[in-house]
Design goal:
elongated; 244 residues; 5-stranded antiparallel beta sheet; 15 strands; alpha+beta
Length: 244
């Protein structure tokens, strides 16, 4: 389990330097028998590395609770969207003081009801490239179409009294081709109407960090993780690469 390996690595870490000619080479056996923290220069061969496929190195990391999770694939997101589409949009939540709503029924067999809520600024709609919108009942394909045209897209569903975010297994925000996720443990989702405070700003920029803050989301960060096993004939040591 990569996460427990990483935690153990942090506890037993030795700083291994691959430069610094002023240090003599130290055998791995010596390093393994010494207590951290120390500085060493080693000469070793790469025996194995994980993961084998580069895309598997990308994980989601919570800086608050230090948890790691896999990046969900499109199928997971599509499944959540389909589940939320079972509940029809609530017309009573349409056309408020801070967003305009459009609703239609698809022409296919399922006849899904889709609602899109365009957030206003100074009672006016912004240019598409500056607009944040919320979508209910859309498919993955429809959501991606919207992200190509509008600045920010937030998938939501209706409750009796308010719009709310989907399960945090889904992204809480899409911007271009980037999906932003929140930590399930550290987030306390707040009502969607909190977004109206950003819409009221002089120039709403719809920055992901600001959106996350007003919605009570602890955003996850994309990190790059690899594990290398190094050998020199006297022992083997694991080296971890962890970077944003």
């Amino acid at each position: 389990d990569l996460e427990s390996h990483l935690q153990r690595c942090q506890q037993l870490s030795v700083t291994v330097l691959t430069d610094h000619q002023d240090l003599n080479n130290t055998e791995l056996k010596t390093i393994l028998n010494s207590t951290a923290p120390q500085q060493y220069r080693i000469r070793a061969k790469l025996r194995t590395y994980k993961p084998q496929k580069l895309y598997q190195s990308i994980k989601l990391h919570c800086p608050k609770c230090n948890s790691l999770r896999e990046v969900p694939d499109g199928g997971d997101f599509d499944f959540i969207l389909q589940g939320s589409a079972v509940t029809a949009p609530n017309p009573e939540l349409h056309n408020t003081s801070w967003y305009d709503s459009v609703m239609w029924t698809t022409q296919d067999q399922k006849q899904r009801k889709i609602a899109i809520h365009f957030v206003k600024h100074d009672e006016m709609l912004q240019q598409p490239e500056d607009t944040l919108l919320m979508i209910e009942g859309g498919t993955l394909k429809e959501v991606w179409k919207l992200t190509k045209r509008f600045k920010c897209v937030i998938p939501v569903r209706s409750t009796e009294h308010d719009l709310e975010l989907l399960d945090l297994s889904a992204p809480f925000l899409l911007q271009g081709n980037i999906k932003y996720y929140g930590c399930k443990q550290c987030s306390t989702p707040k009502p969607i109407k909190n977004l109206s405070s950003i819409a009221a700003e002089q120039r709403p920029s719809w920055e992901p960090t600001e959106i996350a803050q007003v919605l009570g989301i602890e955003p996850l960060q994309y990190v790059f993780i690899m594990k290398f096993t190094l050998v020199d004939g006297t022992g083997a040591i694991n080296a971890y690469l962890f970077d944003y």
